[in-house]
UniProtKB/TrEMBL annotation:
Membrane topology: Multi-pass membrane protein
Database matches in InterPro entries: Aur1/Ipt1, IPC_Synthase-Related
Protein name: Phosphatase PAP2 family protein
Keyword Transmembrane helix in annotation: yes
Length: 308
């Protein structure tokens, strides 16, 4: 009898699932790839640190003035050979309309940040299941742009040698560029390729177009990067080829996101379950085997015993 009892106890202990104390590498990777509800404090901290790091690295890239000016001349010749060197004409035409160019200067200085942060806040509130993936695309885009600043220093059109571009911020004394006037020492003036004004605006526009439910808002999503392209050219802060570089960086960002999550952000579920404490969510007491149920407790009546 004692031996039978011991074996029965051993079998029961083997049947009881023990709490998981360590995650396998595959399980942890699957967990990281699963969309989860973002934490507000973490996102604020992450965005603040990321932008600070981006600015620090971008401005730490050596200002290779001579090489940046040579690269600008090369870009300008390529556009002329393509018959698409229209930046100077747009710059002079818009600069002749004072109220318009002043508005574009402030557009260049502010919407780059306001719209991007606004889209992130909207995603956080209305599309939490897609937030992390869309944010990853933005971060990967920005990260690869830093490589471009280092490998291909480029002067903006307004700083070209012998060029006839108008620095609209200097002429109209507006705060429209971190690389003009009194603010020029705060930013690397020779980091024009790729244009993150375009990279971030196309990211914002595509996100709005893919996820917004109001038709006119979706249209605005498509119009926004087009207007941004006009602004960066009219203010002589970028060549249009810089915009192409920004789009290529964004394509890289979406490729990283698709590789990590297995799909593009808009294809992920809109909402995700609320977070539950620490991992794993199940508690040890929830993993105990169910006891054999008493027939009387199941039916509320005592079983009928038939005697011979």
């Amino acid at each position: 009898m004692g031996d039978t009892t011991v074996r029965t106890t051993e079998r029961l202990e083997e049947a009881v699932p023990h709490p998981v104390t360590e995650e396998t590498g595959q399980g942890l990777l699957r967990r990281l790839r699963t969309p989860r509800r973002p934490r507000l404090w973490f996102e604020i901290l992450l965005i603040a640190i990321s932008y600070w790091t981006y600015s620090l690295v971008r401005n730490a890239v050596p200002e290779q003035r001579a090489q940046a000016l040579r690269n600008a001349d090369w870009i300008w010749r390529v556009e002329q050979q393509l018959g698409l060197a229209f930046e100077e004409s747009v710059n002079h035409a818009v600069n002749s309309v004072t109220w318009l160019i002043i508005g574009m200067n402030y557009y260049y200085a502010t919407l780059h940040f306001v719209v991007t942060l606004g889209v992130l806040v909207w995603l956080y509130r209305s599309h939490p299941g897609r937030y992390a993936a869309t944010r990853l695309a933005l971060f990967a885009t920005t990260g690869v742009a830093l490589v471009g600043y280092y490998l291909f220093p480029l002067a903006p059109p307004r700083l070209m040698n012998g060029g006839h571009f108008v620095d609209t911020v200097m002429v109209h004394e507006t705060w429209g560029s971190m690389a003009s006037g009194d603010l020029k020492n705060m930013s690397n003036q020779y980091a024009a390729m790729p244009s993150m004004h375009i990279g971030w605006s196309v990211w914002s526009g595509l996100t709005i177009f893919a996820l917004a439910s109001v038709p006119w808002v979706r249209v605005l999503g498509l119009v926004y990067p087009v207007l941004t392209l006009v602004v960066i050219v009219a203010t002589a802060n970028h060549f249009w080829l810089d915009a192409v570089g920004g789009v290529l960086c964004l394509a890289f960002g979406y490729a990283v996101t698709a590789a990590w999550y297995g799909r593009l952000p808009h294809a992920l579920p809109r909402t995700v379950p609320a977070r539950r404490g620490a991992w794993p969510p199940t508690r040890a007491r929830d993993q105990r085997p169910a006891r054999a149920q008493d027939p009387a407790s199941a039916t509320g009546r005592r079983p009928i015993v038939r005697r011979p």
